[in-house]
Amino acid sequence: MARDLPVIQPGAPRSSATPIFEKIGIVGLGLIGGSIALKSRELWPASLVIAVDRKDVLETAMRLHAIDVAADDLVVLAECDLVILAAPVRQNVSILADLADNVRTSAVVTDTGSTKRDIAAAAAALPPRFTFVGGHPLAGAARGGLEHARPDLFQGRPWLLTARSEPLESFVRALGADPRLVGVDEHDRLLAYLSHVPQLTASAVMDVVGSAVGETGLALAGRGLADTTRLASSPADIWRDIAASNADEIGRALDVLIARLQELRRDLPDGDRLVDVFESAARWRTVLKP
């Protein structure tokens, strides 16, 4: 890659297929942003996939042929008709404030963050030429980063949207996901239970167990501990932002979990409450989709 950005991917394939969006801008090429880029180039070779990130990440993306245009400045998004903010949640809010000075055309703007209230409030200040729709693909992996991105990441997975947008819904369906409408407040409450508390719990369990038994003890562990703590490899910087932007809902959900654990702690000699919790958990586990 040349030192000066933006850089256009040489020899990128083109076709006459009509894309949903002509120019797709993605800010942040981690697991989610990178997977969107890979699938978009696969589906719509006539579109331009334009990415903004650090130079080292962009160099990798160009080598993977995940993007067409690479830049480390938002000005490259000037003519995009879709802008996807796929950075950590607090960075997305900051980037949103700079879009009006860099994107000159009418555009659909969405994000992929795990919390919605902060960015929805910030989006209210966008000029009317922008249509903002909060978004959250419920797809991921234990490890983040562009190196783990793949074009089938969203296949069959829900993709939450905070408002109706026919072009964006079509885009999401084309990526393989199932768009579902959810309110901003309800999103943050649901995700506190569905994602945020499970992540914090897995990391806390791994920290407690590892600190107590060390490497020698962990060598004796079976599949149960590995399965239970799969999320413990998640990057702290992303989750620090999520926790800060949804602290009230996460706090309430943690209080419920802590109360349940305290019940189990008090019931250890008898096990009556333990039986109730295990039976309830087993019933709910049959409902949970893998």
Low-confidence stretches: 12-16
Over all CA atoms, what is the radius of gyration? 21 Å
Helix-residue proportion: 40-55%
* Distance N to C terminus: 40 Å
Question: Order of strands in the sheet with the most strands?
Answer: 1-4-3-2-5-6-7
| Count of the separate structural domains | 2
The CATH class name of the largest domain reads: Alpha Beta
Class by alpha and beta content? alpha/beta
Please identify which CATH superfamily of the largest domain we are dealing with. NAD(P)-binding Rossmann-like Domain
CATH 2nd-level architecture of the largest domain = 3-Layer(aba) Sandwich
The biggest beta sheet reads: 7 strands, mixed
Number of strands: 10
Overall outline? elongated
Integer average pLDDT: 92
Looking at CATH, which topology of the largest domain would you report?
A: Rossmann fold
User: What is the helix tally?
Assistant: 10
Amount of beta strand: 5-15%
Order of helices and strands: EEHEHEEHEHEEEHEHHHHH
Could you please describe the fold and organization of this structure?
- The chain is of the alpha/beta class and 290 residues long.
- The protein is 46% helix and 13% strand.
- Strand 2, helix 1 (31-43) and strand 3 (48-52) form a beta-alpha-beta unit.
- It is elongated and about 65 Å long.
- Mean pLDDT is 92; it is low at 12-16.
